[in-house]
Each structure stands twice: as structure tokens, then as C-alpha cells.
Amino acid sequence: MKTGERDHSRSASISRLIFWRKLLNRLAADDLSEANTLRLLTTLRKEYSPENAGAALELARLRLKAVGKFGDDAPRMFFTRDALEQASDPLIRQWRAGQTRSGMALIDACCSIGSDALAFAQAGAIVTGLDIDPARIQMARLNARALGIYASFETADVREGMLRSEMIFFDPGRREGEKRIHQVEAYQPPLKTLKGWDAERIIVKLSPGVDLGQLEAYGGETAFVSVDGDLKEAQLTLIRGQSIASRRAVLLLPNKMMEWQQGEDIAQSRLSEPLQYMIEPDPALIRAGLVTDAAIEWDAYQLDETIAYLTADDAPQSEWARAWRVQEWMPFNVKRMREVLRARGIGQVTVKKRGTAVTPEALMAQLKLKGNNKAVLILTRLQWAQIVLLCEEP
Hints:
Layout: H1 3-25, H2 37-44, H3 50-65, H4 67-70, H5 81-86, H6 90-97, E1 105-109, H7 115-122, E2 126-131, H8 134-147, E3 152-155, E4 165-170, E5 175-176, E6 179-180, E7 199-206, E8 221-227, E9 230-239, E10 246-253, E11 256-261, E12 277-281, H9 283-287, H10 291-297, E13 301-302, E14 310-312, E15 321-331, H11 334-343, E16 346-353, H12 360-367, E17 373-382, E18 385-391
Parallel strand pairs: 1-2, 1-4, 2-3, 4-7, 8-10, 16-17
Antiparallel strand pairs: 5-6, 7-9, 8-9, 10-11, 12-14, 12-15, 13-14, 15-18, 17-18
């Protein structure tokens, strides 16, 4: 973009920001509930077009929803519903931005409204955001302006090629309407789009349920990222000159970041009947295939080679796991379970399950619980046999 065009674009961005700020200020103190929609639109349409009135009301509501992801910045930012839903978790944005360095040239391919691009820029990278959707590029520019962050945003189709950069962050669309896309080559644009890109490091945001087999042709490192025990996304990192595939788990907490790297040797499964504690590894460990590594670290055993639950005589003192003390266990039998629960006066249970088709709702209807005590029921398998474990509330 030439200097004159850049100045004109900046001036237009400021004018749009002033216009929308004035319009949205009208809604700042209003009741934005759905029941109030007609009154709000009727009032706004006295001064603004129906299109702008409707867009302002939608944005005002999105800003309220965005507080969880953008905190105090949300009331100043611009979103679409899809863009907000797909925006990265704030702890992930912070973690990912930490993989850059000050002055690094970085391209955010498929940048949408710019949430990741702005995090990179705040960390000191020199960022250019690209997206095929002109409306989202305009929102990205408005967001940068509203937050006082410098980044460049341009409308471009990344399928047509990419300029050389030190780092490229690639965030392809993983939904088609309400439907999730499960094939990486069906992403919009497909993962193969990155082939031929010239960068020292390419980072790709992926669905947390990605099939690792679909990534084999790319090599690189796949990280599964959990935020406070909730699996959020996967990330593929390709570094020039490194082709060996590896995996790691990342656990992000409000004031702490933890990583668990795949070992050079594949850990062997160790099996046991239930011991004093049942242990559930963090979902990032499970998706990264590191359950057996965790079992060795915690001196624990699996009940079944195909099930991610572990058991041990001591509960691991680790943010990577949750543990419940086992009171007793038995083969799965509803009648027997009902007798045991009633004898213990248990009227409320939390049901957890792995490796069984039984649904908690169907089971609860059959148990007909009575009593004031609480417990945790874990439905799973012991070397292919269905069992249930009665555990203490943590």
C-alpha cells in the first residue's frame, strides 16, 4: 500500500471509529435483553439507518459476551458473532505471543478481527494481518485503533501466496456454519495452503480434536493446550530444518504455565485393579498421548490400556491431575449399585465415565437415590470388563 493510500485508510478508520463510538454510547446504559429489542431498535432508527441500528445492537450485545475473553478491552472492540466465538482464549493469546520476540516480522494469516495479531503486536512483533474478508479487516483496524496498538491489516487471499516472514501464524476456519470441520484439508483454507510458505517458524491453530494421523505429512510439533483443565485447542509448529514429529501438552493457569514434553522412549502401559485413588489426567496430556508417561511419573497404573483413567495408592500432588479416593468398586450392576448407595445414605452423585455407553441421565433414573450424602461414581472398564467405582467427593 502506498503512503497516500495508507493515510487515507487510517483517516477512514478513525472516522468509522468515531461514528460507531457515538452510536454505541447511546446503548451503553441501556437494558440490552432480547425482550427489549423492539424498543431499542425503534429508538435508534429515529437517527440511524435500520442497518446501522441493528448492527449497533448486535455489537453492544457481543461486547458484553466478550468480557470473558477480552476483559476491560471488550467495551471498545468490534466483533462478529462467529469471530468472537472463534477468538483464542486470553491465556492462550498471551502464551502464544510469548513465542515471538521484539522486532520480529510476523504475518497473521486469516487474522479475522485481529485478536491474535494484536497480542503479537503488544509483545513487540511487527505484525501484518491478512484476511480475505474486508469487513473483518476493517474491524481489525478499528480494534487496533481503539486499543492503541500498532499493526497493519490488509485484505488478501493467502491461498495466492505469502511474502517471506520470520514467523507466520495461520488460523484457518474450522467451522462451516454451525458444523465443525474435522479434516484439516477441508479447513478454510486447507492446511496444505502453507506448503511453500517461506518462514523460519510457522504456527497453525488447530481444533483440539484434530486427528494426529492427518498431520503426519507435515512433521513438526503438535501441542495440545488446556486452560485450567479445559482443553481449548491444538497448535502445530513447523520450524525450518526440523522435520521430526513430536507432541507436548501445555497447561495454562492464571498465574502459571506448564509444559509436558513427549519423552524419547515410548512408555509401556502398566495395569492394575483399582487402588486407593482414581486419577484423571489433564485432557491436554490425554490428547498428547502422554497418559503412560504420567503413570510412570506418578507411580500409577492404568485399569485398561485403552482408558485414560489411572489408579495409585497416593494421589499425585500436581496441577496436571484430579484424584478421588476410592471407597469401593464392583462389576457394573445397577441393582448392586443401588443397594450400596442406599446403605451409605448417598442421595446425590457426580457421574464420570470413560469407555462405557451408559449415560449418566439413564443411570440416575434407575438408581432412584435417597439420602443426604454425596459421592462420585466413575463408570469405566477394567481390562474390558465394565466396572463402577464409588469415590469420595474431593
